Amino acid sequence: MSNIVNQATEFAKAEYAKHDPMHRWDHVEQVMDMALYLEDFYRDETDPEVLRLAVIFHDIWYENYDEHADRSVDVAIDFLKIKSYPEEKIALVTRAMLDHSWPHRRRDWDSRTMEWKIIYDSDKFHLALSPSWYDKYFSQLYLPETKIKVQEKRNEILC
Fold it and tell me: What are the HD domain coordinates in residue numbering (predicted)?
């Protein structure tokens, strides 16, 4: 793991500890696990560092749903600028972060890069497993590998 990812992880763990139980560090770990699983299928199309940073910061500010993506981006930008992270990579990280959020995804544009698709699917994966959320989220998943994994997990749960 790169130094910036390690630094972001340490910073983020403290920030996520302040959140409601649904958006603490264990949520980031769940999203990261799925993102890394999906990244294996799309290595040639994915910047691993951008993906990891986007996952780490995607819900770092979560006082309310409507503002969480924009405010999380603000936190990420501040942190990454202090660390002298390249501006062009900050733009990729923050765009992926915004794309995990349904309002931004549909308002601005549909997902265009693999990192954006991976973070969206990874964040919604556990929701798609839930019987009450399955109908809403399953059809919106981008990647066939995510859909296969959801079906496998649902079959495990039902058996």
Answer: 24-126
Please tell me the CATH code under which domain 3-158 is placed. Answer: 1.10.3210.10
The whole-angstrom separation of Cα 52 and Cα 33 is 10
Q: Domain extents for the chain?
A: 3-158
Tell which residue, 81, 76, 83, has the closest CA to residue 100: 76
Task: Note the pLDDT tens digit of each residue in 78-112.
Answer: 999 999 999 999 999 999 998 876 555 554 455 57
For 34-93, write each residue's pLDDT tens digit: 999 999 999 999 999 999 999 999 999 877 777 878 899 999 999 999 999 999 999 999
Contact 47, 94 (CB under 8 A): no
